[in-house]
Every structure is written in structure tokens, then in C-alpha cells.
Write a structure and sequence with these properties.
With about 70 residues, this protein is mainly alpha-helical. About 75% of the residues lie in helices and about 0% in strands.
Length: about 70
Amino acid sequence: MRRSDATESRKKDTRKKIELGGLIAKAGLRYEKRALLLGLLIDAADRLRGNEAERERLMAIGVKAFGHESK
């Protein structure tokens, strides 16, 4: 049973990573260097901390890109 739990956990982790990669592609950043992508994400995380207006602004952009409300 323990092996099954570990396998299921790995599958869920893999699926989440695939979804995150899909977001990079959807944003048009598929061919950018990894260091640039990481820099963008770190910068965004810094800007979001304690800044609800920025969070809402970026959320609106994402919702529009998806064409519907996202999670």
C-alpha cells in the first residue's frame, strides 16, 4: 500500500508540473531561457507580497487569457 501511495503522489506531482509548463506555453514564453523564466516568477512573487491591487490586476489578466474564471 505504501508503494501505491508514493506512486499516486508522484503522479499528482507530475501532473501539476505539466500544468505549470502549459501555463508557460500559454503565456507565449515557451522558448525563453529557464533563467529568464525563473527571474520573471521571482520578481512577480516579490511584487505580489502584500500587494492585493497587483494580485487582482494580474488575476484579471489571467482570467481574460483563459476566457473564464480560473481557480
